[in-house]
Amino acid sequence: MILQISRALRFNVVASLIVLLGGCANLGYYAQAVDGHLDIRHRTRPIDAIIADPDADEALKRSLTMVVKLREFAIRQLKLPDNQSFTTYADLGRPYAIWNVSAAPELSLELEKWCFVAAGCVSYRGFFSKTEAERFAEELKIKGYDVTVGGVRAYSTLGWFKEPILNTFLGYSDTELAQLIFHELAHQVVYVPGDSTFNESFATTVELEGIARWLDSNGTDAQRAAFEAAQKRKAASAEIMLDYRKRLEALFASGISTAEKRTAKASIFAELREKLSGLRTDKTRSGNYDQWLAQHLNNAYLASISTYTRLVPAFQALLGRENRNIAQFYETVKKISRLPEPERALLLHQAEPGNQTTANSTP
After folding, report:
1. Could you count the other beta carbons within 10 Å of the beta carbon of residue 171?
2. In degrees to the nearest 10, what's the CA dihedral of 104, 107, 110, 112?
3. 151, exposed or middle or buried, with CB in 10 Å at 0-12, 13-18, 19+?
4. Partners of 148 in the β-ladder
5. In the structure, what pLDDT confidence band is assigned to residue 161 with cuts at 50, 70 and 90?
6. How far apart are CA 240 and CA 230, in angstroms?
7. What is the full DSSP assignment across 19-70?
8. What's the mean pLDDT when you consider all of the chain?
């Protein structure tokens, strides 16, 4: 009976993930996705049961109690989905849920994309195994791509399956935990197949709005100060990277030789690494950060980092136009999400602060 249930479960997950990820090609990739998801599923326990367990680790129980509060806040105050997401917990025994691989050509900031049926075309490929991710990254490097491999604490099935809280979520501040929960639940509200920047920027906007509301009603002065300081550091870093991204785009579009572009590219990235290293306030960890920059800062990283932030100002402007009514904001974004890509992009561009053609543009 156990074997039959296991087989039935595996069949259902395989069928669902192939629809979600697309087609029957690359079955090896889908197999690791199915096995990874099933492994997580087999490890889950109800959060309520863990909190009530007198033998459970006290630190874990405190963290999961905070998860319960944050989930309730997300449902009540942010109007995020009230389903079975984040009602279970799984310890994966590793620091990340998945490892994402992103790639861009040597002389371009256009990310490589992989296309799936329900998810559309996305600018990364996720692996439950770091070894598999690095193996795939090496294949891309051999083909001449700039490649980055990054550990990710959470992933979303877009509501197809019950999303668990993972050990990878924990060990961070309450504010960071809240950001992650709000962000992942936002993906269940609106998702446009094939438009990673739209999806991630929308989720980031909901995350930031959620944190502002959470800190207003539940945060301490110290938490608010720490969050504001972190946001300033991120903004400074983003401004620097945007500037250097523009410089690289101009370089790659120029008519100079490939050899000259390579030399200039190396010089630009060396300057960028120095600029970013200068932002570090924790000097005890600056050496590790410099090493990380040397290994990971390339076309793929620079192109992928803006995915999460490029459209945030536009979405925040739309939220402001709705007087921060979050439910109405979702309805507006859903209407925009149904537009053809050119119209969607134009409307969001018009919504950005500073543009004067926004008054009557929202559907």
Report:
1. 12
2. -30
3. middle
4. 102
5. confident
6. 16
7. HHH-SSSSHHHHHHHHHHHHHHHHH-EEHHHHHH-TTS-HHHHHHHHHHHHH
8. 85
